[in-house]
Write a structure and sequence with these properties.
This protein is mainly α and about 450 residues long.
Length: about 450
């Protein structure tokens, strides 16, 4: 806890944690109620489609990180939204191609597959608004967007399931809720722009639109000689690429984010292949414990991200994040072990065989949470090399799963060992890289304790 007290971001961590927890609780309620209302077999297909939906959200997560990084450095909201629209177009095209493939591979209905995939481009637009708010360090508003968007997405799906409908209508209802969440997030993000404009009195023009600056006053004056030139209205006319907001920047971040997302979802997808229908459903329920441990400390990376983008503070920010994550992970694993007997009471007696394994699922999620922050630091520094290590670990893990996993126990053990090995290697490499960068002359301005 002494590490946390030294951080000037405790309030921000609390706010974002509250928003993220609201989102996570809403997601877990959806999975728990779906597991009961759809039955073991029906829930297996529903959970698999949610996992595919998470994979399709990779561009959204990468986009948010890129936009937040560049908004901290001065990019206007108009440029960020232009990039979000371009990325949403690419994701829409990919989703149209993937719908029949997903339906065939996972053996689910075409309508259900389409309902899951059509959410992807809307998640990209939502992430763009979240990146703008995060880049402006408006963490109270970010917490509102995180929690509110999750409620708007999940409440319609829960209502549809409660009325007795199946996975396909529920997924389409969730897509409609996501569209509404995008509108609400845009409204909140515009409010942060207006607040900044009233506070600083500064405005910029981008392609004919007025947009307030996201830098603190005189932030550009602190930029060392030889760093990126101060951005001006004339620079903005050259397009989003002039602000570091090109599609190429998102693709680089996608490489890193995709590796993490694939590793976190691989075992759930493989369970549909190596386990029978009932065991795959039980594994899907156990994976909820992994998701809890994975997303519970999400706020740590979100709030410390601006500091990770500054080489002179990156190593310290990473050490602080790791200390917090280890503590939260230990509590989560212990909590999963203690609360395990309650699982059948909430989900049904069909899931009793996995209650003794919930702590192992939580351990896998806690390890992936550490990996998430480590890879997030790579995106903050615009490095993609750590992604290669993650892909290697994923390939090795999946190969072992497909050949050696024949039960829920063997599959979760292999998944946990894969997460542990990959996390240890990448964390060691990232800490050494951050330490070396901190000792070198920095070309990035020190933007203060809050990172903005």
């Amino acid at each position: 806890m002494s590490v946390v007290r030294r951080l000037p971001v405790v309030k921000d961590l609390t706010l974002v944690t509250a928003g993220a927890m609201t989102a996570n609780v809403a997601g877990y309620l959806l999975q728990l109620f779906a597991s009961r209302w759809l039955g073991v077999a029906g829930y297996s297909s529903f959970a698999s489609l949610l996992a595919v939906q998470m994979l399709c959200a990779v561009p959204a997560l990468a986009l948010q990180n890129v936009i937040a990084r560049e908004v901290v450095r001065g990019a206007p909201a108009a440029a960020a939204r232009t990039l979000a629209l371009r990325c949403a177009g690419w994701v829409t095209a990919a989703a149209l191609i993937l719908v029949p493939l997903v339906s065939s591979v996972l053996k689910v209905g075409f309508a259900a597959s389409a309902g899951a995939m059509c959410t992807a481009p809307m998640l990209v637009l939502l992430a763009g608004e979240q990146g703008i708010v995060q880049g402006r360090s408006r963490f109270r508003e970010l917490a509102t967007v995180l929690g509110g968007a999750a409620i708007l997405r999940i409440a319609p799906a829960l209502i549809v399931l409660a009325c007795g409908f199946g996975p396909a209508p529920a997924l389409w209802a969730g897509a409609a809720g996501t569209a509404l969440a995008v509108v609400a997030a845009r409204w909140i993000a515009e409010g942060t722009v207006a607040d900044r404009s009233r506070t600083t009195g500064e405005t910029r023009t981008f392609d004919g639109d007025t947009d307030s600056t996201s830098l603190m006053p005189d932030a550009t004056d602190r930029t060392p000689t030889g760093t990126r030139p101060a951005r001006t209205a004339s620079t903005a006319q050259q397009g989003t690429d002039a602000w570091g907001l090109g599609v190429a920047a998102v693709f680089r971040a996608v490489q890193v984010q995709a590796a993490l997302t694939a590793l976190s979802a691989a075992d759930l997808l493989v369970s549909r292949i190596v386990l029978d229908e009932n065991d795959a459903g039980r594994y899907a329920l156990g994976a909820i414990a992994a998701k809890i441990a994975f997303w519970l400390p999400q706020a740590v990376g979100v709030v410390l991200y601006p500091k990770m983008a500054q080489p002179q503070h990156s190593a310290r920010a990473m050490r602080s994040a790791l200390a917090v994550l280890v503590g939260i992970g230990a509590v989560t694993v212990a909590g999963a072990a203690v609360a395990a007997p309650l699982a059948p009471l909430f989900a049904g007696r069909d899931y009793a065989p996995i209650q003794g394994l919930l702590w192992l699922f939580a351990l896998e999620g806690a390890l992936l949470a550490v990996l998430q922050v480590t890879l997030l630091s790579a995106i903050a520094a615009d490095r993609t090399a750590p992604a290669a290590i993650t892909w290697i670990g994923l390939a090795a893990g999946v190969a072992v799963m497909l050949t050696c996993a024949h039960s829920v126990l063997s599959l979760i053990v292999i998944a946990t060992v894969t997460a542990a090995g990959t996390t240890l290697v990448i964390t060691g490499v990232a800490l050494r890289t951050a330490r070396a960068a901190g000792e070198s002359p920095s070309r990035v301005p020190d933007l203060g304790a809050s990172g903005t």
